[in-house]
Structures are given as C-alpha cells and as structure tokens.
Write a structure and sequence with these properties.
Helices cover 42% and strands 14% of the residues. With 391 residues, it is of the alpha/beta class. α4 links the parallel β3 and β4. α2 packs parallel to α8 and α3 runs parallel beside α4. The structure holds pyridoxal-5'-phosphate. The site of pyridoxal-5'-phosphate has 14 residues, from α3.
Length: 391
C-alpha cells in the first residue's frame, strides 16, 4: 500500500541523483582532504567544487561559505560566533525562531548579553516597525528566520535587510548591526540571494532539501569575524575544525543545485495544491488555517481543529497510511505547547489541536484528496475520545 508522506518539513528522502554524486566519496575516495598526495586531492577538489556550487546558488563568494555538521550548527556558529567575538551587547531574535536560534540566545542571556525576543503578529509575521523600535545603541545582532518550519510563514527579510543597511550607514565601524537568517526551510522554496536579502549570515542544511542529514552551511559575509564553536585542526578557516564530511558536503551541494533548478516549477505546483487544500480543510467544522495566506511556504498546510488532540489524530492518520505531524511537534517534549503557536496568541488547548501537512516532490492532488476524504472521520473519532476522557 502506498504511504502518503506529508512531513517534508521534518525530513525529506535522499534524492537519487544526490546519492549518486555522493557514492565515490563514500566508497573509493577516502583520503583526508588535508593530505597532499593525489588521491586525497580528489577530496579537496570535491570540497572546492561543492563550495563553489553553494556560493553560486546563494550569489556569494566561495570563501564566504563555511560547511557545518547541520543547520543547528550553522545557527549556533552564527549566533555564538558573533556574540562571543564582540563580548557584550544586545541581540534580537523573533519569538518563532527554531530552537537552534532560541536556545543559543537564551544561553547568551545567561552569559550577560541583553536579549530581546521579538513578538510576531497574529499571522506569524514580524512587524518591521516593532523590530526597528527594539534596536538599541548596543545592538550587535538580529536573527530572523526566512521561513518558519511549523506554520510556514515567510518573513520580510529583504525589507529588514534594507532598513539595517540604512541604519548601519550611520554607525561607526565595529558598531554595525549584523543580520542573520535561518533559511533551512526556505532553501528550495525561495530564491536566496544574500546580497539582495541584505543579510550578513545565512544558515542552510541538507536534510530539508532531499540531501543528506547532518549537513549544513553558513554564509558569513566577507570581513565578518566569528569566534569558532568547535576548536581543533583548523578546517573551514578555523571556524569549524574536524575532518570534512566530504560525501555529505558533495551531497549538500548536489541537493541545493537540484532544488534550485526545479524551484520555480515546484513552488508553482505546490502553491496551487496548498491553497486548494487549505480552502477544503477549512470547510471541516471547527478547523481553522494557521499563519498567513500568501507569505507562506508553498508546501506548508497548517490547521487547528477544535476538540481534538493533534497527537491522537496523527496516530489515526498513520493507520490510514498518511504521515503527518502535530502542528506543534518541534521539540521532543511534545507535552509543552509549541512556542510558535503560543507566540501567535493561541491557548494551550487550541495549540494541542493543530496538524501540519508539509508536501514535497512526490505529493499529488490524489494524495490530498485521500487526506480530505479520511480526515473528517478521524476528527470525529478524536472528538469522541476527547469527550470520553473528560467524563
Ligand atoms: C530543520 C531546521 C533546523 C535544524 O537543522 P538540522 O540540520 O536538523 O540541525 C534549523 N532551522 C529550521 C528552520 C529548520 O527547519
């Protein structure tokens, strides 16, 4: 029986072409890229090519790319890297950031940095004026994600970047505010031109774009000084020591390249499916769409349903061969309501009834028709058991 996988925001299957590109480095070419002999040089050359490919996609220079072991590590390097180099100051992050941005910010708060966690509007989008108002004389870093992993909202990064460039013109060298964006979910859905966006740092990863898990990269604009998070043999310009994951890096580059090549056609196809599915889902009694209608990732469908527990619905969906996520399953401790949904002003009960369906390259209209056929039945079952548990 066909499985209907609707959890692409959590993980994507490895693309066949990506695996093929990785194979030589998993089998034959095992040399350490730092070694001098010819067989190891193949690995060094592969790294050089992968770096150039990613730089090309992000419209930056090769030396502005640092390979990391994940999106999490890229975000950590950006935030800790900037903050610890500066030593003190004010940091602004949005309240709906991924944990890999929020937790480092919380840690820096403990280390004596000032931290503002910026609220978002009801639609999940940062209000640019509120952001600008929160900037202080000692602000060193702003981190706003390009697109959210739970509710799919896309932030006005280019607008913020433009404002910051204007504000930075009046600031002395060394007092400039750096702008970081976590683009792990946006890669593959949006054109990420770092110059156009006006960002100084940008994090991506492989596992959300049909690449290998445990791969990532940080764009760090020329001239930006970062304190390393990992120390050792000095790989990646000393910013990320450790023998490079050559096969993973080659896979990341291949995945980014393919995602970019099919981005526009996929985005168009998925946007159509998304808008249709959301309007159909909203016809279900007690169901409400979350987030923003248009500033939204093409593949993201997120709803809350009154009177159900998302977890139970997901287990039922699995019995019907549909893999989805509770709209709030961002952390392992799923008993806590999602910080993203709380930031939108939802109550714990509302947040508990949320469901996230994230589409991908294999998703068809037929898959969604099937989902729409079985979901009302599942919701009815969940509501019965919710009522039972209250008696
Ligand atoms: C998945 C994800 C990350 C973390 O990436 P890993 O490679 O799993 O560490 C960070 N930010 C966002 C928005 C993500 O979706």
């Amino acid at each position: 029986m066909k499985q209907i996988y609707l959890d692409h925001a959590a993980a994507t299957p490895l693309d066949a072409g990506v695996l093929k590109a990785m194979m030589p480095y998993l089998k034959k070419e095992f040399g350490n890229p730092s070694s001098l002999y010819g067989t190891a040089r193949a690995n060094k050359d592969a790294l050089t090519r992968a770096r150039a490919t990613i730089a090309d996609m992000l419209r930056c220079q090769s030396y502005e790319i640092v390979f990391t072991g994940s999106g999490t590590e890229a975000n950590n390097l950006a935030i800790f890297g900037v903050a610890r180099k500066k030593g003190s100051g004010h940091i602004i992050v949005s309240s709906i950031e991924h944990e890999s941005v929020l937790k480092p910010a919380q840690r820096l708060l403990q280390e004596g940095f000032r931290v503002t966690v910026l609220p978002v509007q009801k639609n999940g989008i940062v209000d640019v004026d509120t952001l600008l108002d929160s900037i202080a004389d000692d602000t060193i870093l702003i981190s706003i994600m390009t697109a959210n992993n739970e509710i799919g909202t896309i932030q006005p990064i280019q607008t913020i970047g433009g404002h910051l460039q204007r504000i930075n013109r009046d600031r002395a060298l060394g007092q400039k505010i750096l702008f970081h964006t976590d683009a792990c979910q946006a890669l593959g859905a949006l054109l990420l031109d770092v110059r156009k966006l006006g960002v100084d740092l940008l994090a991506i990863n492989g596992s959300k774009v049909y690449g290998p898990k445990g791969t990532g990269a940080l764009y760090a604009k020329k001239g930006i000084e970062l304190e390393p998070v990992i120390y050792g043999g000095g790989q990646e310009k000393g910013l990320r020591s450790g023998t490079e994951n050559v096969a993973g890096i080659v896979g990341l580059a291949a995945a980014v390249k393919k995602a970019n090549a099919i981005r526009d056609t996929e985005a168009k196809r998925l946007t159509k499916l998304r808008d249709w599915a959301i309007s159909e889902l909203e016809k279900i009694d007690g169901a409400r769409a979350t987030g923003d209608r248009t500033n939204r990732l093409p593949n993201n469908i997120h709803i809350t349903v009154e009177g159900i527990e998302g977890e139970e619905a997901v287990l039922y969906l699995d019995k019907y061969r549909i893999q989805a996520s509770t709209g709030s399953a961002c952390t392992t401790s799923s008993l806590e309501p999602s910080h993203v949904l709380t930031a939108l002003g939802m109550s714990a009960a509302q947040a508990a009834g949320s469901l996230r369906f994230t589409m991908g390259r294999s998703t068809t209209k037929k898959d969604l028709e099937y989902l729409l056929r079985v979901l009302p039945e599942i919701i009815a079952k969940c509501r019965r058991s919710t009522r039972m548990s209250k008696i």
